[in-house]
Amino acid sequence: MENKKNKLLLIDGSSLAFRAFFALYNQVDRFVAPSGLHTNAIYAFHLMLNNLVERLEPDHVLIAFDAGKTTFRTEMFSTYKDGRARMPDEFREQLPFIKELIEKLGYNHYELKNYEADDIIGTLDKMAELPEAGAYDVTIVTGDKDLIQLADSNTTVEISKKGVAEFESFTPTYLMEKMGLTPEQFIDLKGLMGDSSDNYPGVTKVGEKTALKLLQEWGSIDNLYANIDSLKQSKMKDNLIADREMAYLSRTLATIDTKAPIEINLADTRIKPADTSGLLAFYDEMGFAQFKAKLETAEAGELALNFEVIEDPSEVSVEKEDFFYIEILNENYHKEDIIGFAWGNKEKIFVSKNTEILKNFAFPENTYDFKKNKVLLHRLGIELPPAKYDSMLAKYLISTTEDNKVETIGRLFANDFMPTDEEVYGKGAKRSVPKDDVLFKHLARKIHILASTKEVMLQNLEENEQYRLLTEMELPLANVLAKMEIAGIAVEVSTLEEIGAENEKLIADLTAKIYELAGEEFNINSPKQLGVILFEKLQMPHGKKTKTGYSTAADILENLAQDYELVAKILEYRQISKIQSTYVQGLIPQIAEDGRIHTRYVQDLTQTGRLSSVEPNLQNIPVRLEAGRLIRKAFVADENNVLLSSDYSQIELRVLAHISKDEHLISAFNHGADIHSSTAMRVFGIDKSENVTSNDRRNAKAVNFGISYGETEYGLAKRLSISNKEAADMIRAYFERYPGVANYIRETKREAKDKGYVSTMFNRRRKLPEINNRNFMVRQGAERQAINAPIQGSAGDILKIAMINLDSALTKGNFKARLLLQVHDEIILEVPKEELADVQALVKQTMESAVELNVPLLADENTGDSWYEAK
DNA sequence: AGCCACACGC
DNA sequence: GACGTACGTGTGGCTG
Fold this sequence. Notes:
Layout (H helix, E strand, L loop, with lengths): L5 E7 H11 L16 H17 L3 E6 L6 H5 L12 H4 L2 H11 L2 E4 L5 H13 L6 E7 L12 E8 L3 E5 L1 H8 L3 H11 L14 H11 L2 H6 L8 H8 L1 H11 L21 H11 L2 H16 L2 E3 L13 E6 L9 E7 L4 E4 L13 E2 L2 H10 L9 E2 H8 L7 H9 L6 H5 L10 H28 L3 H21 L1 E3 L1 H26 L8 H11 L7 E2 L2 E2 L3 H8 L3 H20 L11 E2 L2 E3 L9 E3 L11 H4 L5 E2 L4 E8 L2 H10 L2 H8 L4 H10 L9 H16 L3 H8 L3 H14 L1 H17 L1 E3 L5 E3 L8 H37 L5 E5 L3 E7 L3 H13 L10 E6 L7
Parallel strand pairs: 1-2, 1-4, 2-3, 4-5, 7-10, 8-11, 11-12
Antiparallel strand pairs: 5-6, 8-9, 9-10, 13-16, 13-19, 14-15, 17-18, 20-24, 20-25, 21-22, 23-24
The protein binds a DNA duplex through helix 22, helix 24, strand 18, helix 29 and helix 30.
């Protein structure tokens, strides 16, 4: 690769700066330097430059600016660019600083009296194409479409679309696809249609549409006028003839001068080293703390990062207090190979790719994502001992507002802006393992951040009284979850395939029937096409519209299903095709070679402290409708084992009873009442439980659910199909009869507004930055989250405690039984038949005594050969 | 590749 | 008076 091409980036600075100004225009008041100067355009321009340079990796950069009011174009056409609004002052004042920034970054800028930036760019572009220039790839960046005429085989023109990072990339091929034009024809297009912003008219009454049509037919302005007599008589023909001169003049005005008398050459556009100290001073002057911090740490990082590559096990030295980190390229640690690992502390860091080293490794006690490490090492036959500290989990406990990546931890707790994984490894199809030096440096940076943030994160945990939440809940749980993920659950392909074959037949029949009833074939899976059939062709009454068209969601279709067989069939089709695509075709490829599915539990994601499950999600396997529930027949126990499922009964309402201390709710649970019937009696004033109708109970159940979600009367009314007033009465009656709950809701909202967060029984926090938002909808959303988070979160915490205790009891009791799955209020175990009686008792006892509430905790158990039976 | 609508669970 | 139940993941259509 020694004949590497030069990469030249030519930027229309005037145009791009204007775009930058408007990219952050809505925040113009937030971007003000200490001196009072507006900085939104400077800031956005800097971001744009960073994005461009990072993406295009140029070695030459020239940023051209317009100079002065008059150019050779005004000489030709005196009103050129007349009538253009004067630049806003807030923008004009920023231009000199943008030029200063360009210089300090080591890039080049240039302007030439009487010429526009376009012409400077055009001239340099042509210079770069001369054979004696050597090979150049040119990228032109601007906000103005005129420059598209310069696109050719080695020049790409990028037009700024939106924000600071979105550009539309014009090559001759793309221009042909999009507009049917060559770059040369683009000039003729402007000649015919004119340009209102540059204030030259082209031909009267000819706009983009007409001009495109004319060029499709005649190819060029010259050819058009050569054949003007053969055009049919029309107003347009008259206009073309009358405005012939203006068409040619407009074309000339639109033509970029590629022979401007510039005094610079290509060598002058080469990037120079940045002026670091000058930049730091500039950032201070502008008030750009983030840019400054990023530059400082980049500088410091280069100096402080002291790391050594280890290739041989004999070279290894580990301190107990070190951090340990393992890298994989993608997320699924059940399949990914280790691409490198690192350990060490702030002073001394070691990196390696040789996993042999790990065979007899004294794993240090501090780590990041213990669960991932445990699974990865298990695959190498290594059992990872428990850790004392996990930065990922610590960060998650401190704040769930951001993600918990090492980069984020660095930024938040050390003001250290290391490059992101996406920057180093790429994303999508381009993601790949970089060269050793890049990889090792990246890993060393991670260790450096982990080691430099532990202390301040521990302080945060201490202040929040969350240290035990980390060491006694999340860390032990990580160990339990790792074992569950490694165990996996056996899934029979044959069962899934049988269901799949059955579904295929049903889908074929339903599809035929739907086409017949609709009177045409269409894609039933497309809500858009379905909306057209139902609500336009067949004129069915439509409910709410979504942003993109008619809603075809189930609740809308259900109302229509009584009157229209077609809609009933579509609902059936949806049900079956969901089962087929997500649960049959989706699950089969997830079955590993051992015949089991190994999900991953994400332990650092949800806003409430619940787990989530991915690849595949085993927390949403169908259960409600029988057709879907059959999927559970494929989830089976090993030979001589059974599956044991144990779920908490009404855990969220019990938690609500406990934390609200509502005497009536507590009393109902203490008396072992059917909680929904009991609510029906209190809320509807029914004296005997035998007088509670199933409808009363259904309504009460809905209220009970709604309360813990902070539901409004409108929502309740809609869900129960009752009037707003009836729903409001119901909610009011509920609060009157359960004053403790009403008080809990009041107090929790109050607490959230005062502190900005709410907590679970175990001090897990959810921040609620929107709780005092001026927007009613946003604020009310935060209030619902405030009410729900302690309830859902405490319930989640309780199941976590139960899992930890159960795993440890099973180990102590030398049982072979093991935990396999967790579904929010339920756990599923695989139990050897001979252990069943003992384990059933142990599970029930452990779950019910996980915590002491002022109401009983109840766990219901079911067993069977498959998950279908064990429920 | 990223967004939307939809559907599954608790 | 706004707007209208919490927390999640996966699939297919559509668009850039």
